[in-house]
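General statements about sequence and structure are easier to judge against a single worked case. No coordinates are needed to read the tokens, only the vocabulary itself. The sequence in question and its structure tokens are set out directly beneath this paragraph.
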Amino acid sequence: MKTHEQWMNETIQMAVHNVDRGGGPFAALVVRGDVIVGQGVNTVHLQSDPTAHAELLAIRQACTALGTTDLSDCIVYASGEPCPMCMGAIYWAKPKAVYYACSKKEAAAAVQFPDPLKSFWEEMKRPAEQRSIPLEKLSPASSLAPFQRWSERSNQS
């Protein structure tokens, strides 16, 4: 059985190889027992996809491979401290632990990497109408239709 340090070193090496291929300096593994069930590297700029973070890709792959959204018997290893978007996915997937190698402050200091988390948290503290990206609720009569249909289908099974 590999140690946490061995899994982390493997994750860091994936991140290094990803940089060599033109990707971002981030990688993630989802491990169950001693088996990798999901892996991902940051391909945000390669794919022009702001959601292509290593942790999200690793979680998607693990969930697909295991046929579940419940990763409570898994561990996530990330080369960098997960951002709020990735932490959202992590909380939905419910792994039993997350280990990361480099903090957001260390990453920012190493390469003058912008810290979007600072502005993110500042934005989230503001009322919706005062945020830099407007967030406004629209309430057409049909707004609850998907949820009503979901409830109906759930009650039939």
Q: What stands out?
A: Residues 11 and 150 are 39 Å apart (CA to CA). Residues 4-20 form the longest helix (17 residues). The chain is about 45% helix and 15% strand.
